Amino acid sequence: MSNPFSMNGGAVVAMVGKDCVAIGCDLRLGMQALTVSNNFPKIFSYGDAYLGLTGLATDVTTMSELFRYKVNMYRLREERDIEPETMANLVSSTLYERRFGPYFVSPVIAGINQRTGKPFICGFDSIGCIDFAKDFIVSGTASDQLFGTCESLWEPDLEPEDLFETCAQALLNAVDRDALSGWGAHVYVITKDKIIKRLLKGRQD
Amino acid sequence: MNHLPEAWGRPRDDIYGAYDHQYVSASNPNQHTTSPVVTGTSVVALKYNGGVVIAADNLASYGSLARFTNVERLKQVGSHTVVGASGDVSDMQFLFDEQLEQLIISEEYQNDGHHLRAKHIYSYLSRVMYHRRSKFNPLWNVLLVAGWDDGKPFLASTDLLGTTFSGPALASGFGAHLAIPLLRRVCPDEAAVANITREQAISVIEECMKVLFYRDARSMNKYSMSIISGEGDKVEIEHRKDIQLKQQSWKFAESIRGYGAQVV
Amino acid sequence: MSFLATPSYPQQNVPGGEPTQRHGFNPYADNGGSIIGIAGDDFLIMAGDTRHTAGYNINSRTERKVYRLGEESSLVLATVGFGADAKWLADTMKRAVDVCFPRLSMMKDFKFQHNLKDMTVSAAAQFLFTILYGNRFFPKYAYCILGGLDKNGKARLFSYDPVGSYSKEGERRAAAGAASSLIVPFLDNQVEFKNQYVPGTQGMTERPVEYLPLEKVEMLVKDAFTSATERHIEVGDGLQMVIVSAQHGVREEIIELKRD
């Protein structure tokens, strides 16, 4: 009830495929059990890196804007886009700066490294410990459900379209069993030269 | 010194502080065990090809005080079974000396050639434990039942909640943390029992008792062991009492710094 | 002062009455594990892992959670939660459904009283509700899934909460226990085809639900448990499956799961 991570609800999932990655989120924003918005995306784009944020909605917004600032500064200084791996370390150190008064978020990063062409995903706890997974990352109030669906639906080396379907089904079926997530979804499929963003309707309850 | 009966058997106030009268108050509502008082620590047991070995040390602790050093925590019940108890010693004595004694007397009194085997004793004990927990008046023990049943070794556990489970290697209390890994190394599953000899089983159990003495502060270096061996319908139970721990080596202690993780 | 005022002195026992009892002993524990049941048209699979836990300890790797209620009967009960209560429920159901000791039994056996006819699934379902709700004020802390074949050889499946709530219509699939939150959305998707649409209909036509063949259901059960084993520490060691089929009778199978 007074757990900041589950006051607003939300879910994010990222998956690796063959030369591609997918990242998806739900659209709900709630105050406890009351839904106040069904258009609250939790994925933010920073050039080549995509950042998903679940947890306390105010921190989701704050962090997404903080990283917009930080990534813009990086781009001006370096005159190039930030790589997903670098972004991961930026997120980690930013979170750890607040070690004893953390932002209540569980971030997820997905992207393709434009230099190496390698897909990259990772997740974090709220104080910046990085989880470099080779398969998928889940976060949010539907994380248990997402672990179940991802672990049983995902397989290695999926082509972009199959990865989209797997990611979408894993997300949709997981959020349908979580009262605090759902109300539509966004799924991005990222390949080296193309990004497809799809809006999924999903159950509206 | 206070020689009044209510002070008998209690730690001296001048040394251990005032006695907590919550434990034994004379009047007031009738009380149940809400926490154990005098306790026995781990019981460990392992099946082998032709029987079961079970062991428990002879210490009864009163908190951190090593109160009694000659307590027998293994009891032979009938001709096929040995029960080992950890936890509250008075509850153990109630079970061993009152309940199980009476059970065997009334069963043998029939003189019908039928004898209670390990499975029956276990069934009885687990039902008593579950019944008592359901009355909110638990017997504060973990019991291991070892025996020979139906031509096979038998080993199972029941606790103060009436939870029941069985396995080829079981240990209660601290043993669940320290002895189980050692036991499961030689006996990972039921199939492995066929490859374990009596001597092997005894030496693994001895090793467990030693490790427990090293690290369990509520244990002692004197213990009892029972070996239940069978062949077909024949059962033989060997009790070894007052076993002293052998070949202790405290060499390792020299190199330990702090809690053990520190290397220099 | 009303007679409702609570006395400030310790409550004395009423002579001849039940003694007053209130203190800190916790009569429940959580012994982990998960169970699922899936019904086909004329068969059903009930499954559970065989790990028995207490906190981070593994008590046993070989404790079964799925019970057949009588050797002749198609009734199968799976229970998970507090091990002692779960086992008590299974024993009580077994005793009620099957003939064991009609003379000694406190509860009069159904079969003995009903001309040696087997209890139907729906009757067993209602009976289980009665037992669970009978313990409403000191609940048996176990989640149950009950399955069996009805008199037409069709599969029926019922699932319960600890105080007995269940649906008389039954259901097609159910999951309970430690990893139920991981397994349920997977079964939604793969058994009831939730979020699946007929290709080419622009997501307007839902994929119709149909009964799955036995081989497919067996595969889903194994997938569900290997996945749950991967991500839940209280699930693993072994997978016990009881397959009840109108054609081939009852078969039990135990396969290995990861032990880490």
TrEMBL record, chain A:
A Pfam match is Proteasome
Under SUPFAM superfamilies, the record lists: N-terminal nucleophile aminohydrolases (Ntn hydrolases)
From the Swiss-Prot or TrEMBL record, state where the protein is found: Cytoplasm; Nucleus
The UniProt keywords, alphabetically, are: Cytoplasm, Nucleus, Proteasome
Per the record, the major location class is cytoplasm
- Residue spans making up a coiled coil are none
Q: Which GO terms describe its biological process?
A: proteasome-mediated ubiquitin-dependent protein catabolic process
Which is a Gene Ontology cellular component entry for this protein?
nucleus
UniProt lists the family membership as follows: Belongs to the peptidase T1B family.
Function, please? Component of the proteasome, a multicatalytic proteinase complex which is characterized by its ability to cleave peptides with Arg, Phe, Tyr, Leu, and Glu adjacent to the leaving group at neutral or slightly basic pH. The proteasome has an ATP-dependent proteolytic activity.
What does the subunit section of this Swiss-Prot or TrEMBL entry state?
The 26S proteasome consists of a 20S proteasome core and two 19S regulatory subunits. The 20S proteasome core is composed of 28 subunits that are arranged in four stacked rings, resulting in a barrel-shaped structure. The two end rings are each formed by seven alpha subunits, and the two central rings are each formed by seven beta subunits. The catalytic chamber with the active sites is on the inside of the barrel.
Its protein name is: Proteasome subunit beta
> Which species expresses this protein natively?
Pyronema omphalodes (strain CBS 100304)
Lineage in the entry?
Eukaryota, Fungi, Dikarya, Ascomycota, Pezizomycotina
Automatic annotation (TrEMBL), chain B:
Q: Show the SUPFAM superfamilies listed in the entry.
A: N-terminal nucleophile aminohydrolases (Ntn hydrolases)
- Keywords, sorted A to Z: Cytoplasm, Nucleus, Proteasome
Q: Which PROSITE patterns match?
A: PROTEASOME_BETA_1, PROTEASOME_BETA_2
Predominant localisation class = cytoplasm
> What's a BP term from Gene Ontology annotated to this protein?
proteolysis involved in protein catabolic process
Q: Which Gene3D superfamilies match?
A: Glutamine Phosphoribosylpyrophosphate, subunit 1, domain 1
Subcellular location(s) of the protein: Cytoplasm; Nucleus
- GO cellular component, as recorded: cytoplasm; nucleus; proteasome core complex, beta-subunit complex
* InterPro entries on file: Ntn_hydrolases_N (IPR029055), Proteasome_beta4 (IPR016295), Proteasome_bsu_CS (IPR016050), Proteasome_sua/b (IPR001353), Proteasome_suB-type (IPR023333)
Query: What is the purpose of this protein?
Result: Non-catalytic component of the proteasome.
| Protein name per its UniProtKB record | Proteasome subunit beta
The organism of origin for this protein: Pyronema omphalodes (strain CBS 100304) (Pyronema confluens)
- Taxonomy-wise, where does this protein's organism fall, top ranks first? Eukaryota, Fungi, Dikarya, Ascomycota, Pezizomycotina
TrEMBL record, chain C:
Q: Which keywords belong to this entry?
A: Cytoplasm, Nucleus, Proteasome
| GO-annotated cellular components | cytoplasm; nucleus; proteasome core complex
Where in or outside the cell is it found?
Nucleus
Picking any one GO biological process from the record gives: proteolysis involved in protein catabolic process
Q: Which domain of life is it from?
A: Eukaryota
Locate the region Disordered: 1-26
Q: Does the keyword Iron-sulfur apply?
A: no
User: What Pfam family is a match for this entry?
Assistant: Proteasome
Descriptive protein name: Similar to Proteasome component C5 acc. no. P23724
Q: Which organism is it from?
A: Pyronema omphalodes (strain CBS 100304)
